[in-house]
Design brief:
Layout: E1 6-9, E2 13-17, E3 23-28, E4 31-33, E5 45-48, H1 51-69, E6 75-78, E7 83-87, E8 90-91, E9 94-101, H2 104-110, E10 117-127, E11 136-137, H3 139-144, H4 150-172, E12 176-190, E13 193-199, E14 207-211, H5 221-224, H6 230-241, E15 257-258
Antiparallel strand pairs: 1-2, 2-3, 3-7, 4-5, 5-15, 6-7, 8-12, 9-10, 9-12, 10-11, 12-13, 12-14
Helix pairs in contact: 1-6
The protein binds uridine-5'-diphosphate.
Uridine-5'-diphosphate (UDP) is lined by residues 35, 37-39, 95, 97, 103-106, 134, 180-182, 206-208, 220.
Length: 259
């Protein structure tokens, strides 16, 4: 790991100061844990060997394609197996969840059978707070507490829906249903201008991905529900995207789960 100054350490990533002003380096760890917003009864953590390498590669690929499609992102380039260079942004304190199909605690809470396709896509906001378990909030709460402005929220919704349409098609093309996913956004200051950028990562850690044929889970739910085969599932997502890591099996010694 590099000796750069560490800015922040989260559950799955470490953020370092970047080589130039206005940049940061995201380091992808193999550590994993259940999310606070998911309404799971127990919070567990563990390690999925090789996950960081896969998520770095998958997120690089998806962020790049999303950027090509016209939604601006913080991603600049991948530096090595576990690190990527990104623009430094002020993270907007909202967890944005986009849902196409009912799953998990959403399905339980509203009494909908898991797997039911929603009549329209739902964009949900949670206030980003570990202590409060990322509570669900409305645009009223967001405006009231000044977490984001109404015009910024409009932009976030539009960027989220464009990302959803694009990713749903991309995954459908490789036999994967995009059930739901989480996005985070940040403010990037360019001279006098503020731009909203898609930030964080997009990987099987923050998407629900189901195989179209078998409905097999190919995402972090394998860990959340003790299904096993996490690393294999993440690897299969990378394989179908055509982006398996260059250095091969030495860095990906298989699906070892350490609790
Ligand atoms: N999600 C995430 N981080 C969070 C909250 C949600 O990555 O802090 C993702 C999660 O992987 C899933 C989607 O967002 O793909 C919805 O998950 P949530 O935890 O809200 O659970 P649900 O209510 O669907 O069980």
């Amino acid at each position: 790991m590099s000796r750069r100054r560490q800015i922040y350490e989260g559950k799955a990533k470490i953020l370092f100061e970047g080589p130039e002003p206005g940049t940061v380096v995201q380091y992808f760890k193999d550590d994993t844990s259940t999310n606070s917003a998911s309404g799971e009864d127990t919070n567990r953590s563990g390690t999925i060997i090789g996950k960081g390498v896969l998520n770095n590669r998958i997120s690089e690929y998806l962020m790049s394609r999303i950027g090509d499609m016209g939604v601006p992102t913080h991603f600049i380039r991948r530096l090595n197996m576990r690190e990527q260079l990104c623009r430094e942004v002020d993270i907007i304190p909202l967890v944005v969840v986009v849902r196409n199909i009912a799953a998990g605690s959403f399905a339980r809470r509203l009494g909908i059978v898991e797997g039911t396709r929603l009549p329209r896509t739902i964009v949900e906001f949670h206030y980003k707070s570990n202590e409060l378990n990322d509570p669900l909030v409305t645009e009223e709460h967001i405006a009231c507490f000044g977490w984001s402005s109404p015009s910024e929220i409009d932009e976030i919704i539009s960027m989220s829906l464009r990302t959803n349409d694009f990713l749903s098609g991309l995954f459908m093309g490789i036999g994967i249903r995009l059930v739901d996913f989480k996005l985070e956004f940040g403010r990037f200051f360019m001279n006098d201008e503020i731009r909203t950028l898609l930030a964080d990562e997009i990987s099987p850690d923050n998407c629900r991905l189901w195989d179209v044929e078998t409905n097999d889970k190919m995402d972090k739910d394998r860990f959340r529900h003790n299904l096993g085969g996490e690393a294999e599932a993440y690897q299969e997502v990378a394989r179908r995207l055509g982006i398996t890591p260059e250095s091969g099996p030495r860095d990906l010694p298989g699906p070892t789960l350490i609790q």
